Amino acid sequence: MEKNGNNRKLRVCVATCNRADYSKLAPIMFGIKTEPEFFELDVVVLGSHLIDDYGNTYRMIEQDDFDINTRLHTIVRGEDEAAMVESVGLALVKLPDVLNRLKPDIMIVHGDRFDALALATSAALMNIRILHIEGGEVSGTIDDSIRHAITKLAHYHVCCTRSAEQHLISMCEDHDRILLAGCPSYDKLLSAKNKDYMSIIRMWLGDDVKSKDYIVALQHPVTTDIKHSIKMFELTLDALISFNKRTLVLFPNIDAGSKEMVRVMRKKGIEHHPNFRAVKHVPFDQFIQLVAHAGCMIGNSSCGVREVGAFGTPVINLGTRQIGRETGENVLHVRDADTQDKILQALHLQFGKQYPCSKIYGDGNAVPRILKFLKSIDLQEPLQKKFCFPPVKENISQDIDHILETLSALAVDLGGTNLRVAIVSMKGEIVKKYTQFNPKTYEERINLILQMCVEAASEAVKLNCRILGVGISTGGRVNPREGIVLHSTKLIQEWNSVDLRTPLSDTLHLPVWVDNDGNCAALAERKFGQGKGLENFVTLITGTGIGGGIIHQHELIHGSSFCAAELGHLVVSLDGPDCSCGSHGCIEAYASGMALQREAKKLHDEDLLLVEGMSVPKDEAVGALHLIQAAKLGNVKAQSILRTAGTALGLGVVNILHTMNPSLVILSGVLASHYIHIVKDVIRQQALSSVQDVDVVVSDLVDPALLGAASMVLDYTTRRVY
């Protein structure tokens, strides 16, 4: 078989400068090594790999069983701007002899480091073809200039995102020499499964540390503003000390300013502080596990905004070093990190959260694409680069079948009668819905939920929907932080102290959110309904029971024991009917579907329910709808019961107006339209004049429980800037 335009193997030189670029290059090197019939691999090691202060990281290359052909000491110590320039010059002096000896057909260069610029310059001037990994990206410092300079020297380009691809095209690079492959490190990240991750955590952070209860900090100097970046690092350490969580701090890279940052660490006693572990280097396999199970990562490393998104770990990105990067929803930007309080507040916002896993930078199949791309290089083609000035081709890069997916959520609604699962799009459209009767036992119920969710997730692929996570709406008191149903309503049996998050997350490998159905209704209104854009509003659900949700300053109120917004149990009469909660005189005892059914049965037993034009089949249970029908047909007693129920609900709304003073009250559920006019009458008669102008409306959402469950997932897909 003819390879690369001739009958010999392609001789590939991979040059690695530091721990960061090796994590991207290693998967490619392993791939090349597995195909010796096509490739010969030469490995050149230079830069900070060979410096003791930075961990002598060349050893991990040897541990990966790669033969290092050449070691080049190219770093001039000093860790300032002049030392960086001198290091580039020293590399340029030493590299020609190495390249003359190795005579590679192609050199693979990664990223945007000053060492990589020296490699690309040497190879270009010596007529060696260059394959540049991760070109076209935008970060926010001098790295941008170096990266784009390497792009102009490189003959072939492997990029990670579609935006990066478009940037390369805009820079007039030949579209046929661009491969959109994804980041090679994602091949390892997305296949990294280590059940013994706790041993790694204990090894680096101590025996008493738990998963999701520690922080990983990695911060580098910003070479265009060294003074400010050192100050920001000092503030970060102060915030971490105050936050009082076990923290693994990695030493900064070798850029100008790193020496001063290390001095700051030592001045604050970080290396001897009981809450901190300061290390020069962590092997990549172990680093993956550490960030995957961290409560948060903080700093300004590209790793935080790129690789960590694969695990959904919360990230706090400080300053401007990565300001232009594409990021997942797990990243909170603190661009003006100029106070300790601002960083500390960001830690409180992010620590311990779990976000959807992001695949912005890769799908785990980059290396096979890159190897195929390498095999396609024809060494007989002219070496001189061709620049493609506008107009730009519109076809996509080779070997990439780009499919636009609909970002969606799996929504689960656990009702007293039915169990529903739906695929819900970002716009709130229910793409597909599945309904089954809700089983009576825990085992049957949890198995059915898993079965329906697996079926829906499989169907989502066929419908071209990308599932970002699972949201669950259920009756009862819920701890949304842990995803646990604490106490259920009487309508759902065997449903107390139930962990819903763990079995679904383990089965589907997706993040899972759980909340009370009333809260979900409020979330649905906030994202898709009449509460959209409002700072303060209250939702009341009128169904089998009475529930609700409170949005205050754009946030859902859960309360100290997750019992906020139990609006159905506001007492409106001291001597009212018994309520299912054990009290009496609650709104739910008057206005819920169960309460109306109770009154309907009483009338029916006394032959006072049915009027002319109305009948109830013998096999049909008398319910609230029969009472409503009787009232519409002129049954005075039924009308009186509905008026009393509506008045009780109206008094509850008055109490809400006087307590919360929202800008809107939304009545949701099947009974809302029957109560709205009575509620408004009660407000006019009973409420203070200062709140009588507050609007009360009927929800126009068809499935608020499902939409609310979906919104818990979809709200995290918007990038947030703090």
UniProtKB/TrEMBL annotation:
Q: Name one Pfam family in it.
A: ROK
Source organism superkingdom = Eukaryota
* A GO molecular-function annotation: kinase activity
Does the UniProt entry include the keyword Transferase?
yes
**Annotated UDP-N-acetylglucosamine 2-epimerase domain residues:** 37-375
Alphabetized UniProt keyword annotations: Kinase, Transferase
* Database matches in PANTHER family: BIFUNCTIONAL UDP-N-ACETYLGLUCOSAMINE 2-EPIMERASE_N-ACETYLMANNOSAMINE KINASE, ROK (REPRESSOR, ORF, KINASE) FAMILY
* Name of this protein: Bifunctional UDP-N-acetylglucosamine 2-epimerase/N-acetylmannosamine kinase isoform X2
Q: Native species of this protein? A: Equus przewalskii
Q: Which gene encodes it?
A: GNE
